Amino acid sequence: MTTTPVRQEYEVHLEPLLSVPVERQLPLVQRLWQQGWLRKAVILLVLAVLWEAVARYQANDLLLPGFVQTAAALWDGLISGELPAKVGVSLVILLKGYVLGIVLAFGLTSLAVSTQLGRDLLGTLTSMFNPLPAIALLPLALLWFGLGDNSLIFVLVHSVLWALALNTYAGFLGVSETLRMAGRNYGLKGLRLVLHILVPAALPSILSGLKIGWAFAWRTLIAAELVFGASSGKGGLGWYIFQNRNELYTDKVFAGLAVVILIGLLVEGLVFNTLERLTVRRWGMQR
Predict the structure, then answer these.
(1) Is residue 240 helix, strand or coil?
(2) What single DSSP character describes residue 235?
(3) What is the mean pLDDT of the chain?
(4) Pick among 3.40.30.10, 1.10.1020.10, 1.10.3720.10, 1.20.1250.20: CATH of 61-278
């Protein structure tokens, strides 16, 4: 009986590759320019400089106040507490309508993916009401609900519901049949299938619908408050803009518009970008 010889162990010592050049670090300017927040800040700074230059050339504060004058009016409004109070009124109403719209959209799309009647209902309702501007329903809302927050919440729900329902349903339709079959093999059906399979797989489309619904709701609220505030003598940020326009405080009007823009940027950057980074980008579903 022959035995297989045992091969001796050995170790190869690798010499360092001194001939390969070490990659140099990028210059500080290029590293800073790779930061998204810095590029956006530069864009905003350029727009502010152009705004101030055009305002100084036009030389009419009533028609176009400069950036510095608008910033001073914004600071005065923040220090006095008037602007924060108006913003608080608007955001409370906005959150109520936005959350209610999300709940209704989720229920409608869940019904649509579960039954044929639900699909027909969603298709019919979106074809009817999605092209209808939400602000056009404000006179009916005032007639039905009177002067109060309920009228604004009604038009906000309309502005959020259809955009979110369409995006969510499109995302559900894009879920592969393999994932659906895997969910059914685990005994999932109905609402459990929607929550555990369809929602995670369609999350990019859902987040897109949430962003679109937020934008629709925010601008609808400001437009509705212009009318609602003029009717009742109170309101939020839209009423602040309307009141200062009547009193010819154009710098305060621009300050109110700047707050609308800043809130939109903050929500986009802090809320939706954070959600995308923690979910779809982390899971490799989106670049």
Answers:
(1) helix
(2) -
(3) 82
(4) 1.10.3720.10
